[in-house]
Amino acid sequence: MPLLRSAPPAPAAAVTVPRRHLLTSHSRLKAPSTRPPLASLRLRPAAPLRGIPSRTWCRAEAADADAAPSQGPGDDTGARSALVLLGEALSLGFPVWVASACAIALWRPPAFLWVGPTAQMLGLSFTMLGMGMTLTLDDLKTALLMPRELAAGFILQYTVMPLSGFFVSKLLKLPAHYAAGLILVSCCPGGTASNIVTYLARANVALSVLMTAVSTFAAAFMTPLLTSKLAGQYVAVDPMGLFVSTSQVVLAPVLLGALLNQYCNGLVQIVSPLMPFVAVATVAVLCGNAIAQNASAILSSGVQVVLSVGCLHGSGFFFGYVLSRILGIDTALARTISIEVGMQNSVLGLVLATKHFGNPLTAVPCAVSSICHSVYGSILAGIWRSMPPTEKRE
């Protein structure tokens, strides 16, 4: 009997799985992930969620914020530097502008006759305000601690100039009315224009302002006394009016400028580049006005008066500097004293000559003086501005 073989086990019935389920399972278990690798995540910034800035945007904004402050002040600094350079160019060309204004005044006097007393006061006051902005209260205190320099300037002001006026009128044998006018202007105090020239020459403005104030205060006594002795005629001066005018034009604006520089330095830094324009324009217009008012007399007076006035102011500048150096005063302060001694208050002399002398030609040397000392002073300012003193005051 044949051995019965056990039948092989029947194969298990195949489980029929729908294809869609099989693929679905397989894709869930075996299919590679569709997400990008980690490296690609680092290279691809995710889109920012709504309302939340991305890291790239934040970095860009931060870079812009860092760059903005550096660009703004740079532009402002460039504009300010351009203004400073332009002011320097105008200051160095100061003699040209003054001489041009005076030439136009001789040629066309009406071009400058519009300048009245109020415009003169405002122009000088605003210029003094600008010079005061270059000072601090400590500078003024330091100037008060220089009694030797103040005394030297005062003595030279009322010795060098009056004696020079007297001897020049004798040597050139000026007519009586011209001699009286020359002596009168030589006995006047230092003019406010000396403060402007000192400012342009980069000398000691604080000392210049104080010297102008001291000589002006003393002018109430010194000007009539010296004029009466040297010219033989007494000249009356209103001391209170002189004091008020000096305070309005010199002391008050300079003190205000120093206070602004002390407590509002930001505002001063903005407007200070404009002040050389104001200084140059003011001096040129005022000199042109003084010439225009006496144009016919100046043209008819000839070379003699111009030569005498030139010798007067040249002597003041020269001896003011040389004698100061002999007295041991340093270069910067000697330059200040030279400018103060060489430049007179010609407008005061013009007013006194017109009011107290009968002959109108007496005012001619005073009018010529306004242009002569401005040209001399501006030339010195241009030279000394480019040659700063090397020595320093202890």
Automatic annotation (TrEMBL):
The keyword Membrane applies. GO terms for cellular component: chloroplast envelope; membrane. It is a multi-pass membrane protein. InterPro entries: BilAc:Na_symport/Acr3, Bilac:Na_transpt, Na+/solute_symporter_sf. Its main location: membrane. It is found in: Membrane; Plastid, Chloroplast envelope. May function as sodium-coupled metabolite transporter across the chloroplast envelope. Belongs to the bile acid:sodium symporter (BASS) (TC 2.A.28) family. This is Uncharacterized protein. It comes from Setaria viridis (Green bristlegrass). The lineage of its organism: Eukaryota, Viridiplantae, Streptophyta, Embryophyta, Tracheophyta.
